[in-house]
Design goal:
With 263 residues, this protein is mainly β. It is built from one helix and 20 strands. The chain has a ten-stranded antiparallel beta barrel. Strand 6 and strand 7 form a beta hairpin.
């Protein structure tokens, strides 16, 4: 249930020669939410006997489900979790870092227990307005007997909405150096085929490297403290108007993909 980060320079079209010199990846891109393939591996949570456990968080944690802040360690985006049982089908999770609220997720299970609706606001890796959205999750396994309805194994089936600052990013190449920026405040400048460069604005990523694989494929490798946590492969369409981005989440051992449209 914890997902965020989908990595604004204007293209200069005054001179055909200048346009020809640009990288094929240059421009502002926006994710087409109708073409997102979410991970098939489920998130597993249990709310039972006054406790809340996130089994698939890395690292896993278990705290009291009493609506109070409880410290957790090993997570770059948050250092405390409060889980409130709103009613028999609804739970609300509030994550904080250094005392500041960074994420709020409210999940309401459908009466038949087979699906649930979630709404969230997330500023855990943004320097501006929080990313907001809502969507649906589908149950793939029940929770333990006697546990809260939100317990069990769930996969994200769809997003009903996601704010633009969570779906837009910009690439610009100059002198063999690729710059990336997002409205949420993430950015990097990395030499293509060169050494790792600092990744700014995201507490979960410390460095990045990029390389080209042919004329229309760009591979980005993200690391945290020297450990690979994600590899993204962006492949341009033949007409250059869209690109498919396949993401390997090494931290959680899962994969996803989406299509971004040139703006």
């Amino acid at each position: 249930m914890k997902n965020s980060r989908y990595p604004i320079l204007l293209l200069v079209l005054l001179c055909p020669m200048a346009a020809a010199a640009q990288s094929a990846f240059d421009g502002t891109w926006k994710v087409d939410m109708s073409k997102v393939q979410m991970p098939k591996q489920p998130d597993v949570v249990v709310v039972q006997n006054g406790e809340y456990a996130c089994k698939t968080c890395v690292p896993p944690f278990q705290v009291k489900a009493d609506g109070q802040d409880h410290a957790v360690s090993g997570h770059p985006y948050y250092d405390s979790v409060a889980l409130t049982v709103v009613d028999a089908r609804t739970v609300k999770e509030t994550d904080k870092k250094a005392g500041k609220v960074v994420t709020i997720v409210t999940t309401t299970v459908a009466p038949d227990g087979k699906s649930a609706h979630f709404e969230f606001t997330d500023s855990s890796n943004t320097n501006g307005a929080p990313v907001t959205g809502s969507g649906e999750i589908t149950r793939v396994a029940a929770g333990p007997a006697g546990s809260h309805a939100a317990s069990g194994s769930w996969v994200t089936s769809s997003f009903d909405s996601l704010s633009d600052n969570g779906t837009t990013f910009t690439f610009k190449e100059e002198g063999g150096v690729l710059s990336m920026s997002t409205p949420a405040g993430q950015s990097y400048q990395a030499k293509i085929g060169g050494a790792e460069a600092p990744y700014k604005g995201d507490p979960g990523i410390t460095s990045v490297s990029v390389k080209e694989s042919g004329s229309n494929v760009l591979v980005e490798t993200d690391k945290r403290d020297g450990k690979v946590i994600s590899v993204s492969t962006s492949t341009l369409s033949a007409d250059g108007k869209s690109m498919k981005i396949a993401v390997e989440d090494k931290l959680h051992n899962r994969s996803s993909s989406y299509v971004a449209i040139r703006q």
